[in-house]
Amino acid sequence: MRRDSTIDHIVARCKAADRSALGELYDALVARVYRFVYFRVTSREDAEDLTEQIFVRIFEHIGQFDERGIPFEAWVFRIARNMIIDFYREHKVAVVPLEEALHVPDPGTSPEEQTVTALQMEDVRSAIPKLPETYGEIIVLKFIEELDNEEISRILEKPVSHVRVLQSRAIQKLKEILRV
Fold first, then answer.
1. For residues 97 and 93, what is the distance between their CA atoms, to the nearest angstrom?
2. What is the CA angle 133-135-141, rounded to 5?
3. How many CA atoms lie within 13 A of 63 on its CB side?
4. Residue 107 has pLDDT above 80, yes or no
């Protein structure tokens, strides 16, 4: 993960039982965690609920976090990934309604560009659940979260070379689904 000394400092404060640091940590990571979850589950409501549960788990176990070469953000995404897997085991949900697609427009783009981007995001959002689980995770981590292969390797606990192969296959499969 991109090393962020601010996050490291906040985590240290959390581990030292500084309650205000928990809010700072939440504020620093909630958008990224929500986005990761949102692209993997069936609705905004599920994404919001799951994101809340993820942060509860993080806060409950933050004292157990020990870096050992794994950045805090990788630990967070592992928790999120595992909770998404649990969510699907419990709910047996496979279809994502297209109307649930979310796009937050960039205020610096024209309405036409925003519309094209929104339509592309809807297409990708609806295609991700059709991918094998690992491929969907790779697509979200690489292109939505903009993580590099080494970061993804840590989150998925797979060798970087394997991540590259999975990424290539995921892109190919996504192209097939999107018929690009």
1. 11
2. 100
3. 5
4. no
Ramachandran class of 43: left when φ > 0, alpha when ψ lies in -120 to 50, beta otherwise: beta
* Distance between CA atoms of residues 45 and 25, nearest Å: 22
Residue 137 is predicted with a pLDDT of 85
The 10 Å CB-count burial string (b at 16+, else e) for 30-55 is eebbbbbbbbbbbeeebbeebbebbb
Q: Please name each of the domains of the chain with its CATH number.
A: 1-93 (1.10.1740.10)
Residue pair 53/9 in contact by the 8 Å Cβ criterion = no
Helix (H, G, I), strand (E, B) or coil at 32: helix
CA 10/CA 131 separation, integer angstroms: 36
pTM for this entry? 0.65
> Quick one: pLDDT band at residue 131, thresholds 50, 70, 90?
confident
3-state secondary structure of 171: helix
> Rounded CA gap, 35 and 119, in Å?
17
Query: Are the CB atoms for 46 and 87 separated by under 8 Å?
Result: yes
